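Morning, I've got a small favour to ask if you have a moment. Here's the protein in full, and shout if anything looks odd to you:
***
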Amino acid sequence: MIRTAHWLGYAGLIPFVGLTLGMGLHPLTPVAFVTYSAVILSFLGGIHWGVALSRPEWSSAVRLCLCMLPSLLGWLALLLPMTGTLVLLIGSYLIWWGWDRIQLDQPDYRRLRLHLTAVAVLCHFVWLIQT
């Protein structure tokens, strides 16, 4: 996998970690955290969308609809009270990580997703405990 993808992936953790460390410093911090999380969750569905469009064997209506789930779940999460938001985001990240594991067989991507998902979910748990 391209080295730049690794750097960008890990850099994408900065808002998760930074907002978690800055919890309580500003009234908009919780909103910024869950909004960023929903955007990143949507991005993960977009990865599968791109793969589905580039591989004819993956271009089915069912697969394309599944690619939309992270976006819809992220949006739905933003409509819930904070505890529900965090629980739905945690569950969505874990389920989508599992989906990635069985659908995408690139070892570098799998390893990167494991690291990124672990840190993101850990940050969500910290927020959940503090809520």
Residues 12 and 69 are 21 Å apart (CA to CA). The helical segments are 3-11, 13-21, 29-54, 61-78, 82-103, 107-130. Residues 3-130 form one domain. Residues 29-54 form the longest helix (26 residues).
